[in-house]
Amino acid sequence: MTTPYPRTFSHIGLSVPDLEAAVKFYTDVLGWYLIMKPTTIKEDDSAIGQMCTDVFGAGWEEFNIAHLSTGDRIGVEIFQFKGQQNPDNNFEYWKTGIFHFCVQDPDVEGLAEKIEQAGGKRRMPEPRYYFPGEKPYRMIYMEDPFGNILEIYSHSYELTYGSGAYE
I need a surface site. Which of 49, 52, 57, 150 has the fewest CB within 10 A? Predict the structure, then answer.
């Protein structure tokens, strides 16, 4: 058996209770680019309507969506569904599924402060070092103003973990 080709990452999809506010947050705070303005998608016989019915099942009625892109060209779909339910605690890491996404910024503390000033919050009191006293790799868990969990790394994934795991 041959080793599979390492696929590239295309996009993530986030659900939020306020699409306009989320677009503002992610463009102003994280600097992501708006590539498709907020649009309403309706449950109908159009190609996109049929595709969404295949994904969500019948009865979804409509939703709003915007498309953004990160600095490294990863897509971000932001959805606002009708009747959206916002849990009190969106950090259910013990359940199957994606529980966070991570961005990279050499100024971990500065970005954490920007997120807080824009209505987000810290999930940790301060950034932590992966290799204290040895390497400058830092991280912190945050929450956007809509309850989505994001992590900030100071250095690339490869640098952080290529040095060995938690020795």
Answer: 57
